[in-house]
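pls read this stuff:
=====
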Amino acid sequence: MSPASTGASTAVGAAVSVRSADSRLAPGGPGYRRMSFALFLAGVATFALLYSTQALLPLISGEFGVAASEASWTVAAATGGLALFVLPMSALSERFGRRTVMTASLAVAVGVGLLVPFAPSIGALVVLRAVQGAALAGLPASATAYLAEEVTPKALVTAIGLFVAGNSVGGMSGRVITGWVAQEWGWRVAVGVIGVIAVVCAVAFRLLLPAPRHFTPGSLRPRVLLGTVRDHLSDPLLRRLYAIGALFMTVFGGVYTVIGYRLTEAPFSLPQGIVGSIFLVYLVGTVSASTAGRLVGRLGRRGALYLAGGTTAAGLLVSLAASLPLVLLGLVLVTAGFFAGHAVASSAVSRTAAHGRAQASALYQSAYYIGSSAGSTVGAMAFHASGWGGTVTVGLFAVLGVVTIIVLGSRAARVAAHREPVAAH
């Protein structure tokens, strides 16, 4: 082949590469709004279903005659099921496609959600919630992998932030709706209403989400999957991001599992509808998650995570006050810090993974929801043992863990940067 033909071939290849890159979705471009809204709705359905019993725990405790630590398993079982199944579901998405797996997951989760109101015992309720969480496992990792493949790199943090914002809206609306409905008609009708809302979100999601254009089917061979997982777990940065996600969610899971008990007891003694409305502070999370990209642009990833951790810790301390306005302010700060930290960490995972993005995201989601299960369970146990102060102590230790990981990561990065010039010399 002549030099001229080689040059022409290279130019053609470059042009094809540019067109391929340009065909990815970007703000203002065709399909971006549909994609954003579709995944926003998927996030709404996921969190509304996943945490549908959280604001209702005092009522569930009352009907079945169980303590907070036992009722909290209706939350922990769902998040635990998601944590266990997110990696296998991500493998299916590598083979059969992100949109297919997300659609199937939502369909099964919605179907189970319509059965939850008929649970005859606390044991049956926990089992149904575990199955529902396992079904929802196909959403988080597949969604972030879809975005990493279909959205331009510059818009990735913002796009993932919008998906996380959908999570916050789902968590908020689910708790607010269930609170007021349960006050009038009981917790069973309340979770049934959430199931119907999730059906609408699932149908709209499937109709709106653009077909993937950059997905390449992978292998379902266990050896390939295990090799990919081993690669991700051997990456120090990814390990740190997984731990950060788990610790942030430990705080969040503990606080929001227990807050209903605290506010329905003295000195607040709030009715169930008002307690459900407390979750309107999730709107703060919607804002902080959707602006995470700008935060990283100004402060860098480490700076953004420090700010998120500091905000969360400040919220925990403020919430110790016996004043309802201060408790609400504490919840606002915890929510803002958590969602900002989660959006920054999860988007960093997608950008760090050079291959097997679905598995990288799945490992993050698994760690994240293990943190949720741990926070729900340990936070409730701490509340039972020593009140709200015990739950706050658990959260502060988790935030300290986040800060420690960031400090150690910064030190490791400086050492690596110092060694590189020496090695080159």
Summary: The mean pLDDT is 85. The longest helix spans residues 388-424. The two ends are 39 Å apart (CA to CA). The chain has 18 helices and no strands.
